[in-house]
Amino acid sequence: MVCVHDGIPPHAPRSSILEAAAKARANAADLIVTIGGGSVTDAGKIIPLILKHGLMSHDDLEPFHVYVNEAGETIKPEFESPDLRVICCPTTLSGGEFNPLAGATDENIGHKQGFEHPMMAPIAVILDPELTRHTPGWLWTSTGVRSVDHALETLGSLSSDHFSDGIAESALRLLSKALPMVHAAPDNIDARLRCQIGAWQSMIPIIGGVPMGASHAIGHILGGTCDVPHGYCSCVMAPAVLDYNSSVNADRQGRISECFSRPKEPASKIVDEFISELGMPRSLSEVGVSKDKLDHIAEYTMMDFWARTNPRKIESSSDVRNILDLAI
Q1: Are residues 185 and 55 in the same domain?
Q2: Can you give the residue range of the structural domain that contains 97?
């Protein structure tokens, strides 16, 4: 028996995942298969958690999400592992199918939160570039920039290592060439596959424990609070964060410039131009975020675990506001 559900909107609100889980429960599902982008993937990973623990309501999910306490420590709740497993067939390039972390938006506070357990990781990921022919161009390209951002924040991290740097450089070289190729010729299946492999590579350092920084932290809030599409968050924030961090990691950012074959130019300038040439938005105002929302975004960003691992230390919401001002 096969049950099909197609009601997961962007940023995976809790209510939509609970609805999907109820359908899986009613049909005694013994496997979850996701076909779609990051929000669909995240929902697919959280459904087994809901079923295992008999969660029925919005508030039932509260004890299970990752959070930052008052001391600035990241707390990952421990709970019994889900039984149901997931197979993911991604149609975008955000890369979430490769890790055990899933995001869901708490609609009550407009905040995207992470849920994590090793057994939430998919048992298989199927990369089929033919499937991605149906993905809207803006969505494919913007999520591709999201994977570029994974590589950027790995190479910018002061906690990375030689292995992670090498994988991130490979991802960046693949994506920086293949994304423009698909943008120019959407039917180029080989370039689409290269993008998928680049997205896969970009996730390996994250899976290995390399922390991301402010671009990812702010992106979580822009998505959950302001409903900015996942990929657009990186399009807008990645160059600003590179600029902000350059005073502490300019030598590491040099590796980014080398991947674009422009070793003498600032990484922030190169990435800015790269995103612009792909026709993606480059400012908060372009994605509907006005100045009056920036303080609220900055305060919420301090609740995200990756705000604490940015290369240039973020002490308070005023530091986040300084980054946001670079992107407005």
Answers
A1: no
A2: 14-125
DSSP for 208-249, written as a single string: TT----HHHHHHHHHHHHH---HHHHHHHHHHHHHHHHHHHH
**Distance of alpha carbon 95 from alpha carbon 234, whole angstroms:** 13
Q: Are residues 291 and 249 in the same domain?
A: yes
Amino acid at 218: I
DSSP 132: G
Q: Tell me 107's DSSP state.
A: T
pTM over 0.85: yes
Which stretches of the chain are DSSP H helices? 14-26, 38-52, 137-156, 162-184, 189-207, 214-226, 230-259, 267-277, 294-301, 317-327
pLDDT tens-digit map of 65-88: 999 998 889 999 999 999 999 999
Widest distance between CA atoms in the chain: 59
Q: How many domains does the chain have?
A: 2
